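Budget justification aside, the reviewers requested a transparent look at the raw inputs and outputs of the sequence design task funded under Objective 1. We therefore reproduce one unedited record. The lines immediately below are the structure tokens for a 237-residue chain.
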């Protein structure tokens, strides 16, 4: 089974645009889970322009599924994650001012750093995942960091899907097979949508989780949140 974890950063962005509490992020967390999503993802950034650190603390008691916190592991982010103790922490290498995650880890260059952070998270019984390109060299080296899972960075798949879906998926199939043979769990995310999700799901073996934010929250403007969650869940069958 592939779990759908809904990234709720965009709901927080909309709330923050007016400074009040509309839309109510905490209500959205409860509703999204009630509508059938199997996880909630947040990506608190240092400037708190989306989900704030306090939101992350407030969300934890509402989680009935799985809580995934993404981010670059600064000291502040690690302090937050160790306090919240989510089910999973996903490490991303993006700089603080990035609009969105824009690259996977270099697992060779950052092996030592990742190993240290991952060991701290695992000591606290938090499952770990590292954001990574569909690049065999990077995946081959990933087990050295002792991560439980990798999250395949799917932006290139989403971009190329519209031109040639067979060639777009190819590096992801090879990557997933290698990762599985190395004992790594496989997650995926970035620019997955109603258009490209089912083809990804059907072709990628052992896909444990997809985390989806931008397209899903955008689709909710047209279809409503409940219908949209259902539509995404249907792509994973
Ligand atoms: N995975 C990671 C590591 C991300 O940073 C993001 C975006 O915050 C996503 C998945 C979700 O991407 P999208 O918003 O394009 O669905």
């Amino acid at each position: 089974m592939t779990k759908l974890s809904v990234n709720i950063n965009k709901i927080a962005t909309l709330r923050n645009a007016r400074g009040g509490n509309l839309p109510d992020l905490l209500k959205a967390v409860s509703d999204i889970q009630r509508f059938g999503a199997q996880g909630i993802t947040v990506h608190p950034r240092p400037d708190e322009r989306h989900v704030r650190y306090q939101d992350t603390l407030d969300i934890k008691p509402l989680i009935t599924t799985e809580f995934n916190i993404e981010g670059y592991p600064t000291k502040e982010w690690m302090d937050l994650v160790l306090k919240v103790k989510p089910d999973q922490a996903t490490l991303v290498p993006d700089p603080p001012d990035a609009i969105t995650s824009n690259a996977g880890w270099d697992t060779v260059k950052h092996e030592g750093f990742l190993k240290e952070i991952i060991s701290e998270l695992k000591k606290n019984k938090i499952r770990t995942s590292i954001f990574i390109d569909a690049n065999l060299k990077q995946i081959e080296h990933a087990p050295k960091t002792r991560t439980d899972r990798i999250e395949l960075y799917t932006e290139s798949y989403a971009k190329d899907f519209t031109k040639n879906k067979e060639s777009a998926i190819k590096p992801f199939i090879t990557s997933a097979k290698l990762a599985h043979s190395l004992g790594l769990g496989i997650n995926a995310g970035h620019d997955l949508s109603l258009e490209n999700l089912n083809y990804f799901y059907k072709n990628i073996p052992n896909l444990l989780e997809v985390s989806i934010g931008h397209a899903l929250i955008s689709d909710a403007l047209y279809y409503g949140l409940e219908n949209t969650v259902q539509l995404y869940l249907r792509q994973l069958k």
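The radius of gyration is 17 Å. The mean pLDDT is 96. Computational costs for records of this kind are itemized in the attached budget.
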